[in-house]
Every structure is written in C-alpha cells, then in structure tokens.
Amino acid sequence: MTPVKPPVHISTEDTTAILNRLRRAEGQLSAVIRMLEEGRDCREVVPQLAAVSKALDKAGFAVVASSLRECVTHPGPDGKTDLADLERLFLALA
Predict the structure, then answer these.
(1) What's the burial of 6, exposed, middle or buried (CB within 10 Å: 0-12/13-18/19+)?
(2) Distance from CA of residue 80 to its chain's centroid?
(3) Which residues of the chain have pLDDT under 70?
(4) What are the residue boundaries of the structural domains of the chain, listed by start?
(5) What is the DSSP letter of 7?
C-alpha cells in the first residue's frame, strides 16, 4: 500500500496574498469578457488577456513557493522532502 502524504498547508499570510492575486485576475478576466462582448478590437483585448494569464501564473507560482517553503521547513514523517512531488508542481505550471 502506498503511504498517504500529509497535506501541505499554505500559511495564512501566503493564502491572503494568493487570494488577492486571484481576485485581481478574476476582475481582469471579467473585463476581457466585457471587451469581447462589446466587440472591442483585438489589439485592446489581447494585452488584457495576457495580463490575466500572467496574474494566474504568478498565483500558481506563489502556491508552489509556499508549498516548497513548507516542505523544506517541515519535511515528511521520514524527515525527507519529496523533491519529485515538488518538481511535478513546478512543471504543471510550465
């Protein structure tokens, strides 16, 4: 049987910052949707869409960075950090 990994918790401070990023991205995405519904020029829409994408990437990397910090400061029960698991998280954002 494969051992179950304990969940990695994100600090309250990190969670607040990540949620703020995601809410900002949500507002940007709403603006992009409105722009498309209004038939705005693609030269206006594409930069805004790129900004949404970048905001989501930053939020994802903040989650991974927080997880990495937690894994390094609080390794698993065997005293080791699962580097393969962290690598998968980074690559999921690539």
Answers:
(1) exposed
(2) 24
(3) 1-8, 74-76, 79, 81
(4) 12-92
(5) P
Q: CA angle at residue 93 from 9 to 33, to 5 degrees?
A: 100
User: Residue 86's pLDDT is what?
Assistant: 74
CATH number of this structure's domain 12-92 = 1.20.58.1000
| pLDDT for the residue 76 | 67
| Contact assessment for residue 74 and residue 57, using Cβ atoms and an 8 Å cutoff | no
Q: d(Cα 66, Cα 88) in Å, to the nearest integer?
A: 15
* Farthest CA pair distance, the chain: 57
19-29 pLDDT per residue, tens = 999 999 999 99
Which residue has 């603006």 as its token pair?
Answer: 31
Task: Give the end-to-end CA distance of the chain in Å, rounded to a whole number.
Answer: 31
